[in-house]
Structure formats: C-alpha cells, structure tokens
Amino acid sequence: MQLVVNIVVLAAIYALIASGYVLVYRASRVLNLAHGELMMLGSYLLIAVASGISSSPVIALSGAALLSALVGFLVYVMLIQRMTGQAVLAAVLATIALGVMLRGLVILIWSTQQQYPARIIGLSNNSIELFANARISTLSLALVVVTVLIYLALFAGLYLTQWGIRTRAVGQNPLLAAQRGINLNAIYALTWGLSTFTGAAAGILISLDSGLDGTMTMIGLKAFPAALVGGLDSLVGALIGSLLIAAIEVVLIQTADPLLSDVVPFLVLIVALAIRPWGLFGTREALDRV
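Structure tokens predicted for Branched-chain amino acid ABC transporter permease (290 residues):
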C-alpha cells in the first residue's frame, strides 16, 4: 500500500503544477515555459517573507502566496502583454528567457545552498500511519489536500463564475469575446496570476516537505508532460495525465532503477504524442493552435 501512497503524492505534485500550464494555455494559448522557475521563486519568496517580515507560518505562507500571484500578474503586464499581435512563438521564447533570468536571479540572491523553509517558520513534518503499514508525512498529506481543494476551486471558478465563463470564451474565440465587451488583458492578467499562484503553492509545499534548492525547476519541467499527455486545455486531463505518469514513474523506480525518475515523464510523453498528439482530453483544434 505504500506504493499507492507514493503514487498519490507524486500525482498531486504533478497535477498542482500542471494546472498552471493548463490555465495559461487555455486562456491565452501560450506555453509558459518559465512555470518551473516561477514555482521555485514562490518557495524562495517564502524564505524572504519569513526572514524579513514574520516567521509566523500563517503570515509567511500567505505573504509568499500573494506575492507569487502578484509576480504572475506583473509577468503578464510587463512582458507577455507586449507580445500582443506577435507570433505565439515570440511569447513562448519570452517565457524561456524569463526562466533563465529567474534562475540566475535566485542564485545571485539566495545562492545554490540547500535550504529548509519548514525550519525557518517552525513547522514539524511528522510521519502519519495510514493503513497496512503505509505512511505519509504531514506536509505530503497537506499537499494532497491542497491539490484537491485548488482543483475544486478551479472547476467551480471556471464553470460557475462570471470570470470562468469569460475565460472560457476568451480561450475559444478571443476576437469574438472582445467584440462582446470582455476585457482580454484583464482575463489574461488574472489567469497568469492564478497560474503562478498554483505553481507557487506546489513549490512551497514541496520545499517545506523536502527542502529547497535550484533543482526544483526540474520538478516543474517534469509536470509539463503531465499537462501535455492529459491535454493542454483540460484540467481533467491534467489530473489523469499526472496520475498516469506518477504511477509509471513510481513503479519503475521501485522495480527497476531510481535514476529513471527524470526520464519516465518524457518517455510517456513521446509515446502519448505518437498515439494521440492532442492529449487524452485535449482537442485537435487546440493542437492546431500550438
């Protein structure tokens, strides 16, 4: 049963990160290849808030999450918005450049030394016994719960609120949406802020559970195949893709070689693209836009 627990935790990590890829692509049809770096920045913002403002867990976590959302908003306003009217590739290349810049900035400010945010804000990470001798850490359980809550909130927001209806309309036909009076820039900016918030939430919880260093961007990159396999315009697809890749990865780590962990998501992606390039729950039309 420990194998099942490990799969669920890894799937929750990938799903929470993948939701950020899906949100941005669904609204603006832009692949945010700096998502892993923005996720990592959220974790370092937790350290900055805890060290400079308050080490209270509530204040530090809330401050880091809000600052991360603000960063996503500013990335759109100051960078992506300027790509309006340009080829989609220009925006994608801009996110790659942004990711490189953020990695360098993090190294300059915080260095490459391993850090443990949980110690700074005074959180313990006890092991909890579930069933059949299966165990899970407190913070891993928190990550699974947060993933479930965020997905429920995203589904409710996209299908039950005015923002969600407008976001789906903008994603399907931005020209028609603009003609109907929808503020495209407001929708895009809000979506980028929300995407960065979900990525930062994943990064913060991962860093609290296992520590933080510059290699966190690799986790963000490994979640990208989960979004692609599930379908870049589908949150349900992100969930299924994350569960599929996590299951294969954990099983191969246990039965073959732990070094396969960084390879498995991309092997699954290659197979999935060969069979169904638009993803399990994606659409052909979305693939054409890519």
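The chain has a mean pLDDT of 88.
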